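Two proteins, back to back. First:
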Amino acid sequence: MSLNTINESIEKLGLTAVQKILSEEVIITEKIDTYRILFERVGDTINFYKKDNTPIDLVSRTLTDIYEDSITELSILIENANVPENMRFGLYYTPNERPLRIPYMNIPKYILTDITCKNGAKPECLDYDMVTEWAGNLCIGMPPIIFKGKLSQDQISKLIAYDNKTFMDDYEDTATNFSHILTGTINSPYSKQDIIEGIIIKSKDKLFQVISYEFDILNEAYEHITVPRDFYDLTLMSVINFLNEYSLALPSNVNKETAYISIINDIFNKYCAKNNLNESIELKYLTPRQYGYAGELNKKFINNKETLTILSKGKIYEGLYKVILSSFRKNKKPYGLLNESMIEKFNTYVYLINTAINNFDIEPEILNEADEPEVSVDLNKEMDKEKENDNVVVDAINRREYTDVDNMRVISSIQVAFEPKARDITKGKTKCAIYLTTYRPFSNAQMENINKIIDKWNVPVIIAAISNKYKMIGTDFILSDELVKSQMSAICNFNKETVPFNIMLDSWNLKEIFEYCRPDYEPIVIITDIDKKSDLMLQLYFEEEMMGHRINVDKDFNIGELDNTDRLMALRSIEDSDASSFNTLVPQAIKNFYYNIIEEYKIWVPNKR
């Protein structure tokens, strides 16, 4: 069940009521765009659950190794903390720096968010003081609290304005990046990131959420990522047809989960022996729609030697194994190329596998989940049906009348699946850092930022600027491109070993930066001015996540920002025609540009609006 936003609550309760609720003592926590895992002690066993409270069973752990570290590490922490029964702990779990859509560099791997106690029929949630105390006992991250107390009327007004999207109109001189708004209005985000998912506001028993504009844009972009699933459907149809001639191997395992995996191993082995799998197909065409880090196939629980040998042949075999392992756990409904006749047959095999392992009593039930209706199947009638044609495309057409659009879609999807993989983009020879900043003029603080970058990454720094030729004259003083280029050249001449060259860009374009640098240089970090990082981050998501690594950045590539603390004082020295102050605020390489900048400033002043 999703939380209501402030605006949705105003529509239901009215503005006055919501303002009153927000005027009480509140706790504001940051929403972290990562995985969620829960655990609970039951007797001598620690049970682990997904975010929807379904158990993390053996099959789930085999499909992805994403849970393995958490199960191992948390089990030790739980044992040392002597966790009692009837308490379910909820955590944010961040297995790597980019778990889903937003990357995080400095947050704990585990963050305790909530604890629910089972006292009688109605579960009770512990308050944040108790949650914080338990986080200390478990030696994991504290709840992501960014504010605790009473909000001022100005803070409440700004939160309401932001959530109903009137913030930019009401506070036009204020930063519009939600992370910066929080920092200037309430407190800095828990994650210290420029892009955050949003916040949750708790006031007594009421909960509200505010989602950032940046995350909305990012999430919408991810939602539009589409990989044709026709090849996935055709593969599953091929497996279903193969099962017409397959004799179910009865397992001799001790529980349902291992028995299920044993049957899947046998189906996988015999299917691969009969069918040639095209190893050039990209894995994404056998992978359900997803984003972020999804982990790898966990071979820890696969004990069949023949299965392991086949899996070692390539990732595409792991993809096929996942398709089979995940598919036959429960009944399906018609979807895509899987029409009613095909699904009826598929559900028959689900029934047969379920029947074969029913003698093993262990919870949770794997196959017929509570939210999926069981399908009544006449097994004798189903098994007596005529064997189907081996050609799965012809087989599907025989059972369903496709339109021309359907057929064209299937053909194009298969063509895409079999297209050769794109060549790896050649990276630059020498690693470097990019310092993308403004020059009004270039100050001592900016020179110090270059030295900081060199100290941290130990690479040469390429300085960059955005061309002003497309900008209209406005309220801010803008130097000509020629004068900006001259400043950059001077900095390079004075610092030849550490600042090898400079770039003048047409716009804030990440792809253009890499094209300028390669093949001689390979950026491993881009540092820019305060409030500019989020734009480049969104571009990075688009290029690397949605466009299939179109830039192909280094795996440790980063984007950061540093403040130009001398910016206002340097600009003031230009406004006041104060050569003495100017010379104390800029490096030696820039001092000769004082009169040139003053001349451009005098020309600009009469045109100022």
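And the second protein:
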Amino acid sequence: MSPRTQTTLNELLEFVKERRGFDFTGYKRSSIERRVAKRMGEVGVESYEAYIDYLELHADEFANLFNTILINVTSFFRDEPAWEYLAEEVLPGLVAARPPDAPLRVWVPGCASGEEAYTVAMVLARVLGDEVFRERVKIYATDADEEALDEGRHAAYLPRQVEPVPQEALERFFERIDQRYVFRKDLRRCVIFGRNDLVQDAPISHLDLLVCRNTLMYFMAETQSQILRRFHFALDDDGVLMLGKSEMLITRSELFTPVDLKRRVFRKVPRATMRKAIRALASDPQDGASLTVAESLRDAAFDLGDSPKVVLDAERVRVMANEQARRIFGLTPMDIGRPINDLELFYRPVELRGHLELLMTEPRALEIKSVPWLVGDESRVLDIRLVPLLSEDVHAGTMLTYTDVTEAHRLRAELEASKRELEHAYEELQATVEELETTNEELQSTNEELETTNEELQSTNEELETMNEELQSSNEELETMNDELRHRSAEINDMNSFLETILTTMGLAVAVLDKDLRVQIWNGQARELWGLSPDEVEDQNMLALDIGLPVELLTPALRATLNGADGEELVVQATNRRGREFDCKITVLPLQGRSDNGASGAIVMMETVADGAARR
């Protein structure tokens, strides 16, 4: 990532912190980049600046961003062997070490939707029994995501969410309500949900057990150290810390010691105050030995020491020096009785003035660690110890002891370097493991989203299949109706053909009219006589036809027939389609309907009169 992109991401995180109080600056940068990039892609923006503008315009986007960054991947009894170890090996001893009526306080930070907190509750209830659990246990479940906390407060989970819960525990601790499993209300009251930001907020204190699983891996190493110091403060002296399978305490060994490293269970290391005792040297001879003999023995024993030693009196005058000191610092018998400040020893390998003066005011042993000293071409490292010599609680002198720790210092430096390299390797390995676990949980979250989408698509597909079946059924019904219509049309056509045959056989030109005098049937003889086809005259008014028949003369007969007359006959002068005049006999008969409301139309039959004035 370029410096500009880095700066812009920091600006986005500062904007979120300023507007909503969420501090994501301590989270691992690679994880933050992936999650923010995912959300930016979903809303269709390409730069952090554009996303800041989008957040300013759409306040509800903050919740979507937080839900994307805070990967709420959790489950009941995640990594089950660790919970079994906690129930069988850790909790019995932890409970036994406390008074029978003492409260048991548990903190579950990063609880997400509550599965881990209720897992702790089930384990403790199994160890203590339900009644003791209700009386003594308080479980504080915290998270930075309010939506996840609300889900945890409801304590209602879908069947797929409670699949990891053993059947015995499911029947004991859950009630089936509608389509969800709800944690028992009497035990639920012991689980307290609240918002807590591990980076900014104060920890919950006086804890017996702290369960923080797969949460630290989202933070950078510096932020992890800060959180672990808070965890150390929160736990009682023998409190237990339980981490996730992907989390280790490589650089925090001074805070926690492993109880079971494989299952990531640790115990707090209490802070101890180191006190150093003041040692006094006695110089009086004993057992009746003479002063001379005592001094001789003392000098002989003093010379046998492996470390260089120099004894000064109260006036800082050199009184004694063993053989090692005389050889290394070049002291001679002539130096006995000389003040220490006249000797090179006073200045090398370290100046003693300030230390000797401090020894006069505070009569306790002093140590000067890791003093470098160049002997010829060889570099050495010394530890110098100054011990006050007391006589009847009065400062009588000082003994200087020089211990060569060159080899130990070298080994310590090599050990520290190896330890640093090992810690660095472990940190890199841990970072890789945490990154892998983070990626796995992100993939799990994405997989859950894809499963949800797949279920929605499957539901939509089922609806489409149902609609398709309904359409297919409707189509089959329409095909059946079409078949019936085709059958009836064929029958009607047959009937029409039959009727046409009858009318044609009669040798009469026939026109069937409805009540409005519109032509409904026009047979072949009518077409032959007047020269108009059925298509030209059907649905046309009979009185408006342009044919050789004086249709206006038909009007009275037609009206009378429609009004109830039995029929009318008349002969009129007409002209056929060839232009020949002839006498046309017109017979108008009523067309009876299916009801008693009179004629529904009229039948007009036209024929040539054989003895008329004009014959064909």
